[in-house]
Amino acid sequence: MKTIPSSPSPSNPPVPPFSQPQASPGRQPKHAAHKVAWGTALRIINIGATALVSIVMMPFIVRMLGDRMYGLWILVATFVGYYGLADLGLSSAVNRFMARAARGWAANLAAKMS
Asked: Do residues 17 and 107 touch, judged by C-beta distance below 8 A?
């Protein structure tokens, strides 16, 4: 069982909760523009791969389901897609604000514990 030191020492400095990892001395942190460019490239690749798989799988799905069931499949997929549009970023906003609230809660808890 590990024991927790009662007070910080030079060999055990205090670590704030949810602290950001520090870059190693030999590496510089990536710039925001590089991260945005990389994320954009990955998103474009993701959209292209999804479109390619959809085009390749369409004849197989039509053959397996038949014309009528394929029509029902597309109708359900369309409604699911409209739900995604109707979301209007609400789920992303909820996630962001919940993360902020949790960060504040953790900071309050850490302040009360010390």
From this structure: yes
Q: How many residues does the chain have?
A: 114
Convert the pLDDT of each residue in 23-73 to its tens digit.
Answer: 555 555 568 888 889 999 999 999 999 999 999 999 999 999 999 999 999
Query: How far, in Å, CA of 65 to CA of 53, rounded?
Result: 17
State the number of CA atoms in the 13 A half-sphere of 112 facing the CB.
6
Distance CA 95, CA 103 (A): 12
Label each residue of the chain as H, E or C. CCCCCCCCECCECCCCCCCCCCCCCCCCCCCHHHHHHHHHHHHHHHHHHHHHHHHHHHHHHHHHHCHHHHHHHHHHHHHHHHHHHHHCCHHHHHHHHHHHHHHHHHHHHHHHHC
Query: What are the φ/ψ torsions at residue 12 (nearest 5 degrees)?
Result: -125, 75
